[in-house]
Amino acid sequence: MDVVEGRTSGNLYTRYGLNPTIRSLEAKLPDLEGGEQALAFCSGMAAEAATFLAHTRAGEHIVCLGDVYGGTFELLGDNLPQLGITITFLRADEVARLDEVLTDRTRIVFFETPSNPTLHLFDIAAIAAHARAAGALTVVDNTFATAASGGRSPPSPAASVPAGLRPPQ
Ligand SMILES: Cc1ncc(COP(=O)(O)O)c(C=O)c1O
């Protein structure tokens, strides 16, 4: 019970974040990715769903830029709207319209870079600057360019939550 209730450290049920293998991974990832902190999930969609649900509520808004993985498109285009979260999709060639679609209800600007399937590359720092000015987090899925695949996550000050995944600043 001392471990469960946080009075002492120890290893316990994975669901409580007390699995030593996962904690070891989470401790190493920030060094590999140039980040501050990492949370490991059992799948990419679990990471995305947790991030979106942690940072948006009914009546709030997410902007999605460019093409995205099919499961992500379903989550954003179908599942989250059922919870009252609105989504604006902009094509990659419409990024200049970002300021137009940001509102005081926008909580997240999301994109993949490189994107799936077209491998489009976005200017993370530029987009994050617009998102931050509007009070929104920038969430980046960099599945195709993690340290594991020889790439590197976006520089940490630029984006709030690269889906490698770092927590918000
Ligand atoms: C860019 C991208 N994001 C997210 C996912 C979802 O990851 P997972 O299959 O681990 O849920 C995929 C899966 O291929 C992907 O290509």
Automatic annotation (TrEMBL):
Pfam (any one): Cys_Met_Meta_PP
Record has Zinc as a keyword: no
InterPro entries: Cys/Met-Metab_PyrdxlP-dep_enz, PyrdxlP-dep_Trfase, PyrdxlP-dep_Trfase_major
GO BP annotation list: cysteine biosynthetic process via cystathionine; transsulfuration
Region named Disordered: 148-169
Protein name: Cystathionine gamma-synthase
Entry GO MF terms: cystathionine gamma-lyase activity; pyridoxal phosphate binding
UniProt lineage: Bacteria, Bacillati, Actinomycetota, Actinomycetes, Streptosporangiales
Needed co-factor(s): pyridoxal 5'-phosphate
UniProtKB keywords: Pyridoxal phosphate
GO CC field: cytoplasm
UniProt record similarity statement: Belongs to the trans-sulfuration enzymes family.
